[in-house]
Design brief:
Number of domains: 1
Helix content: 25-40%
Number of helices: 7
Number of strands: 9
Shape: elongated
CATH topology: Maf protein
Oligomer: single chain
Order of helices and strands: EEHEHEEHEEHEHHEH
Radius of gyration: 18 Å
Strand content: 25-35%
CATH class: Alpha Beta
CATH architecture: Alpha-Beta Complex
Largest sheet: 7 strands, mixed
Length: 207
């Protein structure tokens, strides 16, 4: 399993409990310091470029306050037919999003960036996953909205939560849809020497 080296602290610049959960499951030790970067200051553009720009800006904002640390920033969006679906602000918006995604293929983009100001170092990318929804009935949409789960999720659903029943098929990274492409992030951390594989700690671990 990957473990942090004795070098600078690792920070997640996001308050997302889903991203924290994914990194903890990967065996990493880190602090959480949410970025206060104003997302509205970045103009919408190509989805991949947009999430990469936001991820880098979030990581950079926290890294400037902690220049010796390695900071992970991330941003996730849902797109369908060229339109970006953010987080619904009301049951009406959630319904509109779910009706639009019903029986359709959409794309989830997550950009990530890993920044250390005192190296200086920055690496990042944007990962895309294709997601196909089942044909949703009015009753299914009504039930899912009343759970409250859609309201802090891009695209109004959580694939790792009760919203798992909405998804018929995915093509690409599952964790990317949850909010962080763990495979690519761990690869980048290993490449940069921020973490290393510790066979001794991994031995005997029960999965």
């Amino acid at each position: 399993m990957p473990t942090n080296t004795n070098a600078p602290q690792l920070i997640l610049a996001s308050q997302s409990p889903r991203r924290s959960y994914l990194l903890k499951r990967a065996g990493l030790t880190f602090s959480v310091i949410p970025s206060r970067f104003d997302e509205d200051s970045v103009q919408l553009a190509d989805p991949a470029d947009y999430v990469k720009t936001l991820a880098e800006a979030k990581a950079d904002e926290v890294a400037r306050q902690h220049p010796d640390s390695w900071v992970i920033g991330a941003d996730t969006i849902v797109t369908i037919d060229g339109a970006i679906l953010g987080k619904p602000g009301s049951p009406v918006e959630a319904r509109q999003m779910l009706e639009r995604l019903s029986n359709q293929t959409h794309f989830v983009y997550t950009g990530y960036a890993i920044v250390c100001k005192n190296k200086p170092a920055c690496i990042g990318d944007a990962i895309r996953t294709e997601v196909l929804f089942k044909d949703l009935t009015t009753e299914e949409i009504d039930w899912y909205i009343q759970t409250g789960e859609p309201f802090d999720k891009a695209g109004a659903y959580a694939i790792q939560g009760m919203g798992t029943f909405l998804v018929r098929r995915i093509n690409g990274s599952y964790t990317n849809v949850v909010g962080l492409p763990v495979c690519e992030v761990i690869e980048a951390l290993l490449k940069m020497g921020v973490v290393k594989m510790n066979a001794a700690k991994a031995k005997g671990r029960t999965l």
